[in-house]
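Worked example 4.2. Below are the chains of a multi-component assembly; read each line carefully before continuing.
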Amino acid sequence: MTIEANSNDFRCYPLGDSAIVIQFADEISIPINQKIRAIGEFLDEYTFEGFVEYVPAFSSITIYYQPSLISFQELETMVQEMMEDLPEATTGSQSAAIEIPVVYGGEWGPDLEFVAQHNKLSIEEIIHIHSSTEYLVYMIGFAPGFPYLGGMDSRIATPRKETPTSSISAGSVGIAGMQTGVYPIETPGGWQIIGRTTIDLFDKESDTPVLLKAGDRIRFVPVEADILMEEIYGI
Amino acid sequence: MGFKVVKAGMLSTIQDLGRYGYQKSGIIVSGAMDKLALRIGNLLLGNEEDEAGLEITLIGPVLLFEEAHLIILTGADLSPSIDGAPLTMWRPVHIPKGSLLTFGKPASGCRAYLSVAGGFKIKPVLGSCATYLQAGIGGWEGRALKPGDRIPFKQAYKANGKFNWTPDLKLYPRLDKQTIGVIAGPEFSLFTKDSIAAFFSQEFSISKDNNRMGYRLDGAGIHQTKTEEMLSSAVTFGTIQVPQQGKPIILMADSQTTGGYPRIAQVITAALSILAQKQTGSLIKFELITLAEAQKQLQQQEKQIQQLKHTISLKYG
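Applying the procedure described above to all two chains together yields the following C-alpha cells:
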C-alpha cells in the first residue's frame, strides 16, 4: 500500500453523454475501495429516475444514466449530496473469506515452475505464499466474474508472458506482475498459470451466474488433483 | 414454427437493446450494434421497440420461412430478396410460407436487422435476449446462427394490419456520413497537443481488425505526453481508447465493462448507429462537441422516435 490519499476527496466527470464517473485519488487502497462499495450499496438502496447501472473500479465508480430523464448537472449535484452523508459500507468486511480450492502445478498449472524459478523459491514455497494470504476483490471486469484482487505477496510477483497464450482454460489461476486472479471463462491471456480451481466463478446456467463481487475477500486453498479430475471428467 | 437457417451468413446473431444491470459483475451489455435500426424496425411492425431481432453482418444468411409471416428489414442495405425478387426495406412485408430470404451484395452499411411481427421465441437470459458470444449466453443457444437452426416465432402470423403508407424516416442517418461527434474522454488531457490536433484533423480508416467488440483504427499515431500505467476503469460502447502504440480502438456493442488504456474521447450516443454501419476501409473523422450538444442531439433523436411511435399507434389503431 502506498501513502493513502484522503478517501473523501473526489471529482466527477462525464464518460460520454450517458455516464458520470466519481473519481478518487488514482491508487489502490482499502479506504477508497470501502468508499466505492458504500456508493454501490447506497445506489442499490436508493435508485433515482434515469438510473441504469453502476460499475465499480479500483479508484472510481461509474454511473450510467438516461440523459432524457436526468441531466449531467442534476446528477452531479445529486452525487455531491449523496457523498456528504454517505453511510459506511457494510458488506464484505464482516463475512468470512470465500474459499477457492486450487490444484497447483502439473498440467493444471504449467507455469508454476517458471514462477518458482523467477522468484528463486521452491514450488512448495510459491504454493504456501499464494494460499496463505487473504485477498480483497477490488473490482470485477475484463470477463464475466473476473476478480481484480489486491493483497498478493510481492515475493511471488512474476511478469506476464511476452506472447499471450491463445486459449487459457476456465478456472485457471494466474499471476501477472503484482496481481493474481482466476479466469472465469476460456479466453486468450498472458498470465502465468499456476493452478486450476474446481469451482465456477461464472456459471452461465445460473440465475446468479457470478460468484464474486467487489468487496468480497477470498482465500485460495490447495487441494489434490483427483478432486479436479472428478469435477471435470466425472472419474 | 419459424424460419430454418439454410446458410448462416458471416455473423448472424439474435440481439435486442442490451443486457443492463450486470456490468458490475463483468457481464457486458452486448445488444444490437445499430440500435436505431432495430428500434425503428420493431416500431414499424407494431412490436415493442426492444423486441429481439436478427443482426445480419455484411454477408447475409439464407433463411427458409416454414410458415407465412410479416417481417421487416432495416439498417444496412445488403440487397435482400425473396425467392429472387428484390425485397423493399423499411416497411413490413408479408412472406409466404416456403419462401427463401437471401441477400446479395452489400449496397450500403454493414449490419441489417430482421424483425418479425410479435418477435422471436427466445428465452431471455439475465433479462435480455442479446447474444453474448464470448460467454456463450443469450440469443440462440448463446451463439451465432448456423445451418439447420430453426428459429421459432413467438406468435403465428395474423393478417390484420395493412401497411400502405410510407413512414417518414428522416431520423435514420445517412450511412455515408463520415463525421462522428465525440466528447472529450477522461484522459483527453494526457495526450500531446500535436496528437490531439492529429486526432481531429485526420481521416482514420477502420482496419480489418474490427468486430462487435471494437474497431481498431489506422492513421497517424496518437501519443501521450508521458506513458503512465493507469488503473482499470469503466469503458462502454463508443469509448475511444489509445494503447501505447498509438492506434485508437473504438469499443463497440460487445465492449468490455472496464479497461486500462487512456480514454481520449467518447462517441456521442446519437452517432453510434452510423459507426455501427462502417466496415473495413471505411473512413471516419472525429468532431469535438460539448456534452450539452451531445445530449441535445440524443434528445432530438429520441423525440423523433416518440413521434414515429405516436404515428404508428394511430395507423395500427
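Take a moment to check your reading of the output against the notes. The domain at 11-84 of chain A is CATH 3.30.1360.40 (Gyrase A; domain 2). The first strand of chain A starts at residue 11 and ends at 14.
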